[in-house]
Design a protein that fits this description.
Length: about 200
């Protein structure tokens, strides 16, 4: 199994876990509803009866069986995570650190690109002030304001830095992509990647 397959299997285990865990939160699935009908109390000619209300999920496995499979999934994910961690220790670059650093750089690149997109501008707005008229009364008047926005940094240097960081991110991304398909993981999957939770439950029976 290579690293890329391990990641995919890891996501599959997560999906299986959440699906199984959700089933165990469904009251209708984890309980048995029995109804005792006392018809005879209201009608002397009728017989009392006891009914088991069918569950909304028509499956052949029990909540206990689901619990067992969830524990298998957790154990499988734990073993897989350790195998992935062990394999990552042998790679030429630190995969997790490189991914984290790339995300940081990409965030800064977006900021730099936004800065580069800014351009000097001028616009006319209006202001208000007060003065006294000939009668000595205070009145409001409106006047024009020329607002000038200039760039407080070197746009050329900003663009060069953004390109430099993007090249670095691209180089690391290429290395990471290569490592995903060349790094071997010492792990044998217990479940098939295409198995649904129901497939697994039926195999357990």
């Amino acid at each position: 199994m290579i690293l890329k397959e391990a990641y995919r299997y890891q996501n599959h285990l997560k999906d299986l876990f959440y699906e199984a865990n959700h089933m165990l939160t469904m009251s209708d699935f984890i309980t048995i509803k029995k109804q005792e009908h006392y018809r005879n109390d209201a009608n002397v000619n009728a017989k009392n009866d006891t009914l088991i209300v069918p569950k909304s999920m028509d499956v052949s496995y029990t909540p206990s069986a689901i619990i067992d499979v969830v524990m298998e999934i957790i154990a499988e994910k734990e073993c897989l995570s350790k195998a992935i961690d062990d394999a990552k220790k042998e790679t030429e670059i630190s995969i997790d650190s490189s991914i984290s650093l790339n995300k940081l750089k990409q965030s800064f690149i977006a900021t730099l690109q936004n800065m580069y997109s800014k351009k000097p501008s001028e616009k006319e707005i209006f202001g208000k002030d007060y003065c006294f008229n000939n009668d000595g009364n205070q009145i409001e008047y409106v006047y024009k304001i020329k607002e000038i926005i200039s760039i407080d940094y070197d746009r050329t240097n900003v663009r060069k830095l953004a390109k430099k960081l993007q090249r670095e991110c691209d180089e690391i991304s290429m290395k990471l992509d290569q490592l995903e398909v060349t790094t071997e993981i010492n792990f044998t999957p217990k479940f098939d990647i295409d198995d649904t939770l129901e497939d697994i439950m039926l195999k357990q029976q």
